Amino acid sequence: MGALLAVAKRIFATKKLDVCILGLDNSGKTTILEAMCGTLQLKNTVPTIGMNVKQLKSNGVTMKAFDLGGQQRFRSEWLRYAAECDCILYVVDAADERRLPESRYEINRLLEDAGFAQKPILIVANKCDLPHMEPERIIQGLNLDYITDNRWAVVPISAMQRTRIPEVIKWLVGYAHN
Ligand SMILES: Nc1nc2c(ncn2[C@@H]2O[C@H](COP(=O)(O)OP(=O)(O)OP(=O)(O)O)[C@@H](O)[C@H]2O)c(=O)[nH]1
Ligand SMILES: [Mg+2]
Asked: Which residues have CB under 6 Å of ligand 1?
């Protein structure tokens, strides 16, 4: 009976994962959060003041996602939340090459912080339904080749069209824990 209970506990136990969604204002963080939770609506999002928090379940993992405001005045808060999360989803507007240097400045600021050491980072190149930069351009523009301590990857997506959202979730839940 005891052994049976232990097996049942193992089968039904849910793993956990806290994810921090960061990136410049207008990059599409809130749209991605809604797409991941299956609650994306056709109406436009509004700029996030403070943050949104949502929970979703996938493959026995309960993921809590913190979508922080990307406007300049909120960015000082990023590190505080990022340090508490298991992994980071960093969103780049792949259709806006003009703001790539600003995005590079912000991701490098995060990577240089000790609280960030070794946290896995998934960089999503969002808005790929529009004319957009290729992942190689984003890797070069954000200086990602110099990342040594963190697991990272770049995935082109369109949150609006829900393209490759399951791939994003799959990558993230790989870092869930008991
Ligand atoms: N074409 C296109 N537009 C998108 C996509 N994702 C988001 N958008 C649009 O980009 C704008 C900004 O999206 P948000 O999700 O609010 O951006 P955010 O990063 O949360 O912005 P802040 O909350 O200000 O930090 C909105 O008009 C969205 O509809 C996408 O995949 N394709
Ligand atoms: Mg937002």
From this structure: 23, 25-31, 44-45, 47-48, 69-71, 126-127, 129-130, 158-160
